Amino acid sequence: MEQFVPDYYKDFRCAAAACTDSCCRAGWLIPLDGETYDYYLSRKIDIAAGTETDPDGDRVFKLNPDGSCVYLKDGLCSLYTVCSRQGEICEKYPRFFEEYDGFREAGISVSCPEAANLILNRADNPYHDLSRKTDDRLLAFLVSARAEAMKMIYGEPDPDIALRRLVGYSAQLQELIDADRLDLIGECGFGSAPRLRLNMPAVRRFILNETEILSERWRELLGSEPCRAGTKLERRNYLAYLTYRWFLKAINSEYVLGQCRLIAVLYRLASQLCGDYRLAVRLISREIEHDSENVDMLLDFLE
Ligand code: SF4
To answer: Where are the strands (E) in 150-283, listed by range?
Structure first.
């Protein structure tokens, strides 16, 4: 199956011990695949002592009380140091993969500081080729709409207005989906930039009270006074990243307006959380994007 990636994908390099905010300290319960588990056993590593079974029945790495992986030593994975092999998930991170009917897409997640720097510093459009071949009629519609949306995002000087245009466009697309008139996609456009009615204080309260919170930093940030964060370049690149990652997921729900509301809420959160924009983007990704239950809960809340 053909795989597509953004331009920056190939440039990613893990900073390892020099990382400023290691994924191994994120508080994630990382599953270890059986093949690597057996390999560690064959190398006489007492891997059972450093792993446990999580509530879903997966074998996961144990965490220290501060949320760091028990195998993190001096900023490096001690398992890799000993035998040059990591579990599948550790090895792939921060890469993510999405399979669709006829093609596969990959990217890197802004939850990693090195990936975030590559994505948010970009001066040009790294998603210039978004054409995809598929036999699925709705997916073809969404693919075509996403490509138009991305052109608009990189053509509109103000990313806040681009966000409003995106949501306005998705409302038009949704009407066509609901009426089963996908053939009329050419009639949808970005002329209007309607005001966004997003109740951000309520969104923050919902995230604080209803979603699983992994880090105190995230809790503190959600409770801080709203302020203005991020340069136009960072905000535009974050909006494009979110659109690349979340727009086509409407294939599952047939609700592209909901996906774009999710994009809008994540974008606004990053812009309003005080302090370091990149930290906010990273924590949003670690706490929301990487937890499908939190994403689903947020989507339901936004309906
Ligand atoms: S967060 Fe990124 S750069 Fe840091 S250790 Fe993990 S993969 Fe490497």
So the answer is: none
